[in-house]
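Sample A.
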Amino acid sequence: MKIKEIRVIVASPGRNFVTVKIITDEGLHGIGDATVNGREKAVVAYLEDHVAPCLIGRDPMQIEDIWQYLYRGAYWRRGPITMAAISGIDMALWDIKAKAANLPLYQLLGGASRDKIMCYAHAQGRTIDDVVEAVLAKKEQGYVAVRAQAGVPGFESIYGIHKKGKKKNVLEGRLPEEEVWSTTKYLRHIPKVFEKLRDVVGWDTHLLHDAHHRLTPIEAARLGKELEPHQLFWLEDAVPAELPEGYRLIRQHTTTPIALGEVFNTIWDARQLIEEQLIDYIRTTSVHAGGVSGLRRIFDFASIYHVRTACHGPTDVSPVAMGANLHVDLWVPNFGIQEFSGYSEATHEMFPHAWSQDGGFLHPGEAIGHGVDIDEAVAAKHPYKRAYLPVNRLEDGTLWHW
């Protein structure tokens, strides 16, 4: 079997997705997700100009060799664009390999370690009462874990809360919207949110919160300490991780579990944080960390240090990567939780899939391969539209972390 053709399909059924389709000379095909939200065309160029021409005629069964060829062979290693391209290729190759074996992907990984996959939903609101109502609605839908995000008084739009009448994170054809942020006001407000949530929602629902890289280590330590009485499942992305040593300070001051890693690309990004047990959940995902092969390396390493998995899964992780994540989730022994924020009807139509949801739990299904495909006729109806994530500034105008 040889790789005959590689297509890169860019479509926007509500938001942009970059999908890799590998076709073999024996008629089997596989697809992978290579989306980098807000920088999609950079990955397209990398794939079409620098990756696809090198893989035509190669054996698609040699997944590890191809992974190393694209990683080591490029000389300029790592980074979000390179690793998203590798991820898309790797996912598609695992899809082909599982189809050739006539097995669902998780069986090739070693079989299932559980019957179902716990996921968490997103709930947000401008006011504390709005957040409580949103969390209760998710609980009514069967979720046992909910990430709660709240507006901060005085700010119209912050992470998780978009301006009225505007779609979250989708700013088609315009330059990035600029939001205003105050860490001081946020730190005063968030403990009140979770105090109210525990009073109303109770203790049988896991509550999570995302600080979205906004804090310094001592600020994160303070927040974690103040949230301890409310027993969060985790505090996510409290501090940018370019300086992993900063997480030592957080560990010294709070027992609130820490989750990190959605922007990580390789095991090297996560190595120190895992080795020193500075985090409790590693949030790398198949589309950004080297596909199925990359996730296996990171998650196996994490298991040695009591760190559990928590694949990133917002709406810009396409149903393809979600399918790959779920196969890994079903297999991995140190599973923690899976993020799931749902998809538009147009996205479901474009990506027919075997994975399914039952309340607060997911399953990858029993279809051979990873169980997700792309309808190219539907994709053609949703052309690419330039879009950006917002930019964040402090009240004095200083550019800050978004």
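Sample B.
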Amino acid sequence: MYASKAWVWILFVFLTILWGCSYFFMKAGMEVYSPLQMAAMRIAFAGVALLPWSIWHLRKVPKNKIGLLLLSGFLGNGIPAVLFCLALKGLDTNLGGILNALTPLWVLVIGVLFFHKNSTIQKTLGVLVGFAGVIILFLSKGNINLHNVELSLFIVVATMMYGLNINIVDTYLKEVPSLYIGTVSTLGIAVVYILLLVIGMDNSAGTASISLIQWNERHVWFAVALGVLNTALSNVMFYQLVKISSASFASMVTYIMPFVTILIALVIGETIPKESLLCLALILAGVFLVRKSK
């Protein structure tokens, strides 16, 4: 029992760190690459990293589940990867962080409305308390830029897809091992994006064939990190967390992610406002309420 509880929190913390760094990798990579190039390379590198396991696990997945796994790949990574890159190219990172924290709310709402899931008062309160902490955190920084607020719709749609995907996995893929979900779902979308990179499109539209991409060594590594760490490894860890805890609790990772950015700021010598500590307390309270409601 204790080992299981410890593993839940270990996965939670590692996912928070990995996904919390993803904004930095995307922003840095898009100094050279277009949003569509960055998203395509991210998924392509993830697919290559998981290829041996994907092919092996594909043979073990029930045939009637393959379609759901492909759908999960596009909802959980394929389409959101593009939407986030498009948004973050011109969207204030703070606003992006707030909107990404909509994921647990969508998990809850979509689960209740379309998957007939029950939600306790404690779980609902935990989600709302955590989201309030995220909003206060970014409002306290006082530098939210709304001049490109229309781009926020990309992230809103992405978080809706996250919420739908998590409910699909939690409802219809319970008997499929998390390693199978993470690898096979990634294989499906990787094939699409690798073909996109090989064939290419009009470079003015934001994508180009592999031969036309500027292979800047430093910035390629940001795409590699996004693919291998923030997508391939994180996928497997996240689906494992959903299975051993709950969909709502796993999605709460998005509430803690902003504090990874704060810790990075601390390391490079920036000061952390006291308001951030209050927000962290609120967010952690929300996380523990959702965890205890299971």
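B remarks: The chain has one domain: 18-292. Residues 52 and 130 are 38 Å apart (CA to CA).
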